[in-house]
Amino acid sequence: MNSRCAFVSKIIPFSCVDGPGSRLALFLQGCNMRCKSCHNPWTIGRCNHCGGCVSGCSQQALSFSGGKVQWNAALCEQCDTCLRMCPQQATPMAQQMSVENLVAQIRKVALFIEGITVSGGEATLQLPFLHALFSALRRDAQLRHLNCLVDSNGLLSETGWHKLLPVCDGAMIDLKAWGNERHRFLTGRDNRQVKASVRLLAAEKRLAELRLLVIPQQSDYLAHIDALAAFIHELGEVPVRLNAFHAHGVYGEAQTWRSATPEDVEPLALALEERGVKTVLRPALYL
Question: What local confidence, expressed as pLDDT, does residue 2 receive?
Fold first, then answer.
């Protein structure tokens, strides 16, 4: 088995919101976007072991040894003080884990889940690990039935997708804005590669979901509804999931933004349906 390792921010053994059915959700550390609306902003950066968070830990779960911040899970009470302190938008709780480590964890819950979803951060930044993990699952007689999905921002290159797709069942892609300027404002990055990834995955029948995040007074989907609907029709029969922004857990100016309500989401849902988009999935939960 491959001994590739990844920086893992969090593992949720049973999730019903990270793809179809009950799934193990694996969150990798590090992202190549800087989304103002990120609900997991501590997964964006990588710990540089500056040690600034150590003194702020009231439970003494953090220490500094050998030039690195050390985390003691037994003492940690998950108060998130260290996350709020970190200038890198990172976490000292991210752990380096091998493919073998993760396969062992997946094996413990395999009878109770339908698949795994690797998210982040941005999962595809650790592409060799991702490929090795999915390959290991496909080789394992007891685990090969598990559906393997990636939750991605879509910035992976065409070459990268072609490396991953032979061992991956599909990807859920977030298109944070239709217009390039609005996308750069919200994420810090251009969206041309995101749209290219969406088209490639749809052509390969591996686009599990196209996701649109509704942020009141910030989203531009309705302003470009005809172009957006035409783009979706190009993709074929693809589910379009509308997610509702909520300010809980975000950093910076997005903390002042209003959380989305059904009154914010429904006009977009109806506009897409009026233009012939067949599968529009509304948010299951509003916060």
Answer: 45
Q: Cα–Cα distance between 129 and 60 in angstroms, integer? A: 32
Across the chain, where does the E strand assignment appear? 5-15, 23-28, 62-65, 68-71, 95-98, 115-119, 147-152, 170-174, 207-214, 240-244, 280-281
* Largest Cα span, the chain: 61
**Amino acid, res. 20:** P
At 112, give phi and psi (nearest 5°): -115, 5
Which pLDDT does position 186 carry in this prediction?
98
Domains in the chain with CATH codes: 5-43+94-281 (3.20.20.70), 47-93 (3.30.70.20)
**Comparing C-alpha atoms, which of 178, 208, 209 is closest to residue 195?**
178
pTM score, whole prediction: 0.92
* Residue 97, Ramachandran bin (φ over 0: left; ψ between -120 and 50: alpha; else beta): beta
If you ran DSSP here, which 8-state letter would residue 186 be given? H
Q: What angle, rounded to 10 degrees, do the helices at 99-109 and 127-139 form?
A: 50
